[in-house]
Amino acid sequence: MTSDRLAPRDVVNRTFTRVVRGYRRREVHRLLRRAAADLIRLRDGTGATRSDLPPPLTPEDIENARFRPALGGYEMNEVDEFLDLVAEELAIAAREREPAPPAPPVERGVAEYDIAPAPPAQPRSPADVSRRVFSDASPGYLTEEVDRFLVRAAQALAALGSTPRAALPAPGANPQAAGGTEVEPTLTRWHVLRQRFPLGPRGYALHEVDAYLVELAALFPEPGPDAQQEILRQLKLQ
User: d(Cα 211, Cα 217) in Å, to the nearest integer?
Assistant: First the structure.
């Protein structure tokens, strides 16, 4: 990827001039977060070709996106111009995922050796996630809410691949009443990407937290087919 290519964090961090009447900011950021996540999927190949997952956004999806007007919204021309860049980036990423034609066989000489592939990058550890902090900003996401979610994400990350355990009873509840039938909730990529935090007069910088959620989401699996259908249903209701 060349240096002039859009990175997913560039997409999720993008802000625009606020005007008296412009595109509703929440709707714009919702589309940008999904586009950033799909760029990750297309570039690393995760779930890009699986039939049980919704396909990544296409340039046509970006072009057909519509936002409701709102007071204090984003300047429309700025948003439209940036979305053109996002659509182009999605198209490039999709083309790069197309399988290349098979290479012709090459005669190997006696001096040639097999080169072991480089080991994959180690995923971010749960301890790193739980200890993550961000710059102070005013306004910002409430610190305690972000920290609480990161602890939950770290626990879910550590539990990936392990057998689900019985959920702990709520404080004050009768442990016998639980019956051991509940299991610990798990997080999927969509849970992380759609996480929302309340704003306060001071807190964590919004753009830093949003960008980190995109990176964090890549560590979690896609939801299963049933969960995908429920997510799509909820998105249509919004």
Answer: 10
- What are the pLDDT digits (tens) for 100-115? 556 566 555 544 444 4
The answer to whether the beta carbons of residues 85 and 36 sit under 8 Å apart is no
- Amino acid identity at 228: Q
User: Where do the domains of the chain lie?
Assistant: 1-98, 124-162+180-238
Alpha-helical segments (H) within the chain = 8-13, 25-44, 59-64, 76-96, 126-130, 143-159, 175-178, 189-193, 206-217, 225-237
Residues 159 and 153: their CA atoms lie apart, in Å, by 10
Is pLDDT at 121 greater than 50 in this prediction?
no
Cis amide bond preceding 139, omega within 30: yes
Contacts of 178 (CB under 8 A, 6+ apart): 166, 167, 169
- Rounded to the nearest 10 degrees, what angle do helices 206-217 and 25-44 cross at? 30
pTM over 0.70: no
Q: How far is CA 165 from CA 14, 156, 168, 179, 182, in A?
A: 40, 12, 9, 13, 8
